[in-house]
Amino acid sequence: MATGSAKNGGAGQKKTSQNRNDARTLKRKRVKDDLSVLQSATDALDPKNPDLKKFTDLPLCEPTTAGLRDSHFEVLTDVQRAAIPLALKGHDILGAAKTGSGKTLAFIIPVLEKLYRAQWTEYDGLGALIISPTRELAVQIFEVLRKVGRKHQFSAGLVIGGKSLKEEAERLGRMNILVCTPGRMLQHLDQTAGFDVDNLQVLVLDEADRIMDMGFQSAVDALVEHLPKTRQTMLFSATQSKRVSDLARLSLKDPEYVSVHEAATSSTPTNLQQHYLVTPLTEKLDTLWGFLRANLKSKIIVFLSSGKQVRFVFESFKRMQPGIPLLHLHGRQKQMARMEITSRFTQAKYACLFATDVVARGVDFPAVDWVIQADCPEDADTYIHRVGRTARYESKGRAVLFLDPSEEKAFLERLEHKKVPIERINVKENKKKSITNELQNLCFQSPDLKYLGQKAFISYTRSIYLQRDKAVFKFMKLDLDAYAASLGLPGTPNVRFQKGEDIRRLKNASRAAISSGDESDSDGEGGKKKSKPEVRTKYDKMAERQNQDVLSSHYRKIIEEADSGDDDEQDFLSVKRVLNDDALDETAGADATTAATAKPKTIMLGNQELIIDSKRREKLLTSKKKLSKYMDKGTKLVFDDDGNAHPIYELQNENHFKQQGPAEALRREFVQTEADKVREADIEDKQLAQDRRREKRDRAKARERGEEAAAVAAQTGTQLEGCDADAEAALDFLRSLPVAGQNGSDDEDGPPKKRAKKWFEDASEDEAEALQKAKKRKSGKKVFEMGQEPDNLEDLEALAAGLLED
Ligand code: ADP
Ligand code: MG
């Protein structure tokens, strides 16, 4: 290169380029020296050194140090002190530390250092991958990475979905560090061409136990398949599993266990006050409402068990105007809405956020005063993560757990086992106020709300039914009718778990079975359930009333015993673990017994044999539509002049075809005959057109004659007695003339009103099109297909608006 510039330029130029080269070499040397100093300092670092207190005590490169300084991070937290030195030395890490203790920096700093030390550039591709279980958490990790790493030269990206795959894919190839959710990342690894991860240096799993959980299992396993084995792996969580199988799945090599709070007396932050109160399911909303009204000047997160619960409580409380801004967040909202809500809650001073477990883990909302768990969490770990949304870092916080009497004992045991210190509090009697009446009114006035309430009811009862910990969640103890009434619902919605089985029947059956035994809690209650009230109540009447609104079909679907179709309402599966092993065994066993005892029936459909071995198949027999799938479709025939049937297309056999002569000659012959036919038809057409023109001309002449005759008659003022026949002909002719504006005959001279129809076009096609257009013009609105059920509120609203404005 030096010689190249000498050829082109003079002596001066030669000198500057020489200087530049010198400078570059010097810089390179300096960086190299810096790196070797860093490396030797890291090698000499004693991870157990008690004098490590500040970030400046660690061998970190200049850009990282600057980034930390600018973000005002100075003193190391426990987990950072324990994990960062080990990670810098290249160990695999399994880190556990309480919520809010600074785990994010404990992995972000090693990531930045690792790539810096490798002098990673944009040409080296993806160097680090950080996986988060939720989008919200991924966004937050990305923000921290951006803040602390902003003096670095690396490019970092966020892969969480919500945008088109293509849009993301375009930028992916250029990224050095990616923060992602497992599913989306896997999608890219599988589908994005040219996205190469062979160079990956570090893999981080934040909230690792959640990511290794059943819900993400297959995605994570498949994802790890793509990654190179020689890499550093770090796992962090407040509740860390040390399951050997998990570690093997990630191929961790002699991981260092960093568990800084293992010896602590509690597994939750020390500056967190934790309480529980016992409130029956039927009074839960009253208690929650009372709590909100008493804490208007606070920042509160209320955890509920499903998105449907969240929507109902949010919508109904919003209408009741508690006097504190309300927000809601769940996984089925659109990405933009989720981001917007998170940022609004982050900035809010006083607000109440109703949320599902999408924000139970990792999310760092500043200054949250209260975490309310209105629905009992599925396990103690979830409890620990939920309460961890408050009392973060060094701030204080309070948490209240609502428990139904049936949940109290077992769940408190679970908490104790996990070292969670919690105390009971009671709701003051004078503060108790029932909001059932208000809810009833709201549901009565607004079918939308009632619909949400029904959905909430169904999702809650189902989730209880499906919970894994049967000692805590006792489905049989739920008073469903009273619970439905407490939501303000007219009547108790039917919930089916398996096909054809409704919850009440299921429940009553087992109650009947239990009643002989000693079920202390169900005394009195069971009897009340079984005898159906003779008198029809207000609720019954309301339930029978047929809705007149757009939601009526949904409403009826829930209220009535639907008589056909499978219940494909699977979205309640937001419960993390759907069936426990016992339940699976049970169903498997049941299948096995039915298979063994009942001999499957078979019937013939057309020439196909259909085996009736399940209820689903039996039901199928009642539906003609569904059966048609199995039936012989039949073939179309044409009949010749003798009345013999032939298939529409009859294929000759090949030999027969060959006997007729060479294919090319046949083709030419065929073309020739067809061309002749066309020519003949053309001659006829021309003749026809000529005739028409002549006829027209004749008519025009006759008209002229008629007019002249009429003019003569007018002039003479006499009755044309002698020429009756002529007059009659003229009148006839006049009658045959087109009326103005009416296009009676084919007018060849006027502008064509319509494109001439081609021989292959069907008249009805045009008509249908015109009709469609006319319809569109008339309504001028978006056409909604009613076949599909709208599945979110926006769609419902749009649907309602579209129909009502007509
Ligand atoms: P975790 O992941 O353990 O739940 P985070 O990493 O989200 O905790 O950190 C919790 C809060 O503590 C964040 O707001 C973060 O800014 C703050 N934090 C973390 N490390 C430090 C530190 N060394 N000094 C001051 N604040 C810190
Ligand atoms: Mg975290």
Automatic annotation (TrEMBL):
For bias type Basic and acidic residues, the affected ranges are: 21-32, 525-538, 674-708
Q: Where is the Helicase C-terminal domain?
A: 284-433
Recorded catalytic reaction(s): these are:
ATP + H2O = ADP + phosphate + H(+)
What keywords appear on the UniProt entry?
A: ATP-binding, Helicase, Hydrolase, Nucleotide-binding, Nucleus, Ribosome biogenesis, RNA-binding, rRNA processing
Q: Does the record carry Chaperone as a key word?
A: no
Region described as Disordered: spans on this chain: 1-32, 508-538, 674-723, 736-789
An annotated Gene Ontology molecular function: ATP binding
Instruction: State the top-level EC class.
Output: hydrolase
Q: Does the keyword Nuclease apply?
A: no
InterPro entries recorded: DEAD/DEAH_box_helicase_dom (IPR011545), Helicase_ATP-bd (IPR014001), Helicase_C-like (IPR001650), P-loop_NTPase (IPR027417), RNA-helicase_DEAD-box_CS (IPR000629), SPB4-like_CTE (IPR025313)
Location in or out of the cell? Nucleus, Nucleolus
Q: Report the SUPFAM superfamilies cross-referenced here.
A: P-loop containing nucleoside triphosphate hydrolases (SSF52540)
Domain Helicase ATP-binding, which positions?
A: 84-258
Report the EC code(s) recorded for this entry.
Answer: 3.6.4.13
Domain of life, per UniProt, equals: Eukaryota
Major localisation: nucleus
Function statement: RNA helicase.
The family note in this entry says: Belongs to the DEAD box helicase family.
Q: What is this protein called?
A: ATP-dependent RNA helicase
